[in-house]
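Hello support,

Our group uses your service weekly, and this is the first time we've seen a run hang past the timeout. The protein is Transposase. I'm not sure whether the cause is the sequence or the server load. Input pasted verbatim:
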Amino acid sequence: MAKFNEEIIQKCVDWICENGLIDYGGAKLIDFCNVMGIGKSTYYRWMENETFGTAIKKAKEDFKNGLERNVVSSLARSAIGYEYEEVRTEYQDVNGKPQIKRQIKTKKNVEPNVGAGIFLLTNLAPDRWKNKQNTEHSGEVSTGLTVVVKNQEEADLIKQLKEH
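Update from on-call engineer: The timeout came from a worker crash unrelated to the input. Re-ran successfully.
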């Protein structure tokens, strides 16, 4: 069983920064506890310690920020397109052991994704890139409604509204 000290706190923080914990697609609590050699009840008891609790929350936030950076980077690459090298390896059996027969390297091109580009631009710079249409209209608009006036006060009010 792990003993609570600065070293174990740092080990927990490092692991969560890399793997996450519960939120944002991170690891499950049971997996974290197994790696750290603690039980769930120990984790919850340690979370009551301000130093540990704050460190874990910051590590979760660091994981989230790293995940966000990776997603934005992948989205940007998808929006502008990219190239990569694909390597296929063929093996042959030599005395019961696999041995490389040949490797085929192929350059692959991924075309830009217009949808990813639109999404990225409208979210990164919404003041310059809007995914909507504005329609302006000038002049009178007829609603097709007929207004029945019952007294002079209503008639005066309608007259004032039309003048403005």
